Prior knowledge:
The protein has helices at 5-12, 26-39, 52-59, 63-76, 127-140, 155-169, 184-191, 208-216, 261-274, 331-338, 347-358, 361-387, 412-424, 460-470; strands at residues 79-82, 86-89, 113-114, 178-181, 200-203, 221-224, 226-227, 230-231, 244-247, 277-281, 305-310, 322-325, 392-394, 401-405, 427-428, 430-431, 447-451. By secondary structure, it is α/β, with parallel strands linked by helices.
Amino acid sequence: MPESWVNLAESLGADLHLELTGPGSRRAALLRALREAVRSGRLAPGTRLPPYRSLAADLGIARNTVADAYGELVAEGWLTARQGSGTRVAHRAAPLTPTRAPAHRAPAARPAHNLLQGQPDASSFPRTAWLAAARRALTAAPHDAFGPGDPRGRVELRRALADYLARTRGVRTDPDRIVICSGFAHALRLLFPAVLPGPLAVEAYGLAFHRHLLAAAGVPTLPLPVDEHGADTGELARLDGARAALLTPAHQFPTGVPLHADRRATAVNWARETGGYVLEDDYDGEFRYDRRPVGALQGLDPERVLHLGSVSKSLSPALRLGWMVLPARLVDAVLAAKGEREAWAGVTDQLTLAEFLTHGSYDRHIRRMRQRYRRRRDQLAEAVRGHAPHLRVTGIAAGLHAVLQLPDGATGADEQAALRAARWQGLALDGLTAYRHPDATQPPRHGLVVGYATPTDSAFPSALEALCRALPPAP
């Protein structure tokens, strides 16, 4: 019985795509194809080629033809052949340098110090604890976990989240009202416009990425003024047509203030009276330093507040795991928008996160990172006080960034000058203007948004020194 292609591939070597075209014999065509693959760089120096019997079987030509071609290319210096090592592309057979410049520009030099907000310290990912949780989770997982995914997400994770959010954030829910997604942006895509209508009230300062995502979905956004008490939710009743509001109650983004208790109540009452909904972005709920925990807004009315969270800042954005805690009446609509099977969040990561939560590893990681980030925040505040006492450091009671407010009377030109000075020092950071809604009517604020979480512990002092050199002098 003849061997199948699979058996041949498994027993004789790796696949190699070659097109034998052009004039002359099959041997001549094979030589041309191999030379071109090496010359163009498609076969990099050191690449091991398939045994000649395997390649001959794949191409449907005689074994001697391939063996002769290999021998000739070895003699010419394109290939090398050693006993026990097989036939490989010679290291001196590098691809030819292009004769003309590439059409695209060379990438810009990367900044020396990344102080952009919203990015955790990637070096602090708890690899050992995560690996241990993955082993426990996979060992205990039922067989059906590796079948078609449930669009609600794995029940193990939904149960763990229900317990964790109730304990730490005061969320009132059960596993059947939690839907797993791949992050906050994915939650917005699922909710608008399929589940919730527009327009959407948003805070006058927030991520432009979210506004652009909503605009692409045909959902207009209406800005709410933001001050030292957070979003002015009293303005909700005056926004024409708004039936939903997106807020950051625990830590307004990016100004860093919590939503005042009276304004929290006003937002919930507005949703009750209008039949609308409040979307609670709990992006920094775990990282608090100088204040008592602020409970989730969802706890005031689970049928009118959607609680949205993720692990992008607490663990890593690479995990692509988030959740929606939904009013009961919205669950079916969200599942319909998501589809019949889970297409976004991997089951193994869901199972691992569930184990990470129930085993206490997540709590330990949060406590450890809270201490680390607090030290960095203190170092940042002290450095700014020492080098630029005329700048106010605000929004530092919680979160992963601080706002360095420019003096009263500063303009957008002053902010841009400060950003240019930062770039000159090799710093990547943003100005407050980048987060302002284009339709906001309140006077603009000017300052620098400095993330202190991303650099490693060893790199952070150098980043602070560069920042201090870039800070504007007193007026």
